[in-house]
Amino acid sequence: MKFACLDLPALPLQIVWRAEPAWRADPVVVIDEDHPQGIVLGACERARATGVLVGQRYAHALSLCGSLRARVVPPELIEATIAELRTALHTVSPRVEPGEPGTFWLDGEGLSNIFATPTRWGQAIQDASEALGFQGAVVVGFSRFPTFAIARAMRRGICVLRDEEHERRVASAVPLVRLDLDAKLRDALARLGVTRVGELVRLPGGGILERFGADAHRLYQLAAGERWDPLVPVAPPEAPDERVLLDDDEHDVERLMFFVKPPIDRLLDRLAAKSRALTALHVELTLRRAVGKVEVRSDCIKPATPTLDVRALVRLVHLRMTGMPPTAPVHEIRVWSEDTPATREQLALFASKPRRDLRAADEAIARVRAELGDDAVVRAVLREGHLPEASFGWERLVHVVAAKPSDRKIMPLVRRLHARPHPLPPQVRQVRDDGWLLSGLEHGAVVRIVGPYVISGGWWAHPASTPSETHREYHYAELSRGDMLWVYYDRTRRRWFWHGAVE
């Protein structure tokens, strides 16, 4: 399972049918404006049978078919429908790329453990689209253009291609009229007797570029497999809700409030980023009555005015929880909102209000120092040191300062060091990159070692005739479970040590 293509033919018409199910038995057209001079943008088969064609005026089409039904489908509705479809398709593949309206490509890499066969994956894709009221063709294959061409020719159903040769043979039989080519290019190719994809591929590529132009040559390259055409997925649409799954079922209201506040914070952050304010907060609690039996409780909290004040919302939720406590332990919390455009004052107040009370944090660490000693609260600081363990130290934390993280497109890796390097078992001479157990069977054996990175120190404090005090050869050891350990070989002690791990 490498690629799948979902093609929903005549998407604007299907949007009309979803809104008006009774119209499926009638001739239907999509027009650009609700006016007699409006242009027909799409027509169903029943309308075409009466002589209605794309490009005609609505008044002309209505004179040909008196029972004709028409609807305007604005671009905003098409975009919203595509976003809705993408949300559904992201449940069956983490990488989805939308093409022209109604066409989607899905990446099947790594899904063989979820869907036992390509047919089941194709069925899941079709079920996701049909659940939203849309019908189309699903083709599971190995490359983008052939799956798209076959899906356009099928229009309905599921097709699973056995191998690349089978894919190439089926795609070669697809008529070019199914690919919505430019009318002039289609007619010019037809005069040459080229009406199918396979016949187009047999033409010389250079001649197509010279005679028909760059667009025709690009189509030739895609059909012949000469053009690199990778999947370009889009990010999944943002979920409209925030969820918290509790590790242990909770029934105490006061403790539940600590779990409710973080998702409300995230929800308000998203609303503020869109310049929206909350008008109603929905809180859904999943209650566990018994093993395998759950119950869902929903509450709607409405503030007096649209707000972005998390403290006011938490107080209202607390009042509801206190007055109507959960009747069973809570297993999951879900919150979502109804919103409206926010005012400048609300956005300015939200931006200026600090999320953390630094004064309260100072008071908290003061209580910790009073109970456990002045060295109980420390922070890491960088120091000039040659060895890794000497390149940082700890100093007492007196005041908490606001964090100022820098924006990074790539998250930095974290290297965690042991207070003291742990001695490791000796490495087997016959084995280098696999079979070496560093931290027990639960982590697995070493599958790859990168290095060495030599750190040598102490030679400046000793005469040249004596060996250096420190000579370490650091390596990154990747384990079969995925852990990345930071180990070194000490030449002086002639053994391996585990110094830390990279996360």
Q: Could you describe the 3D structure shown?
A:
The structure is a single chain. By secondary structure, this protein is α+β, with helices and mostly antiparallel strands. Helix content is 32%, strand content 27%. It has 4 domains: 1-26 and 67-236, Reverse transcriptase/Diguanylate cyclase domain (Alpha-Beta Plaits, 2-Layer Sandwich); 241-352, DNA polymerase, Y-family, little finger domain (Dna Ligase, domain 1), CATH 3.30.1490.100; 356-404, no CATH class; 415-502, no CATH class. The protein has helices at 11-19, 45-49, 58-64, 75-89, 118-130, 144-154, 164-172, 183-191, 197-201, 205-212, 214-224, 253-273, 310-323, 344-352, 358-372; strands at residues 3-7, 28-31, 40-43, 69-72, 96-98, 103-107, 137-141, 157-160, 241-250, 276-290, 293-301, 330-341, 378-382, 392-396, 415-423, 446-457, 470-479, 484-490, 495-502. The strands form 5 sheets. Strands 5-6-1-7-8 form a 5-stranded mixed β-sheet, with helices on both faces. The chain has a 5-stranded antiparallel β-sheet with strand order 15-19-18-17-16, with no helix packed on it. The model has no long low-confidence stretch (mean pLDDT 85). It has 15 helices and 19 strands.
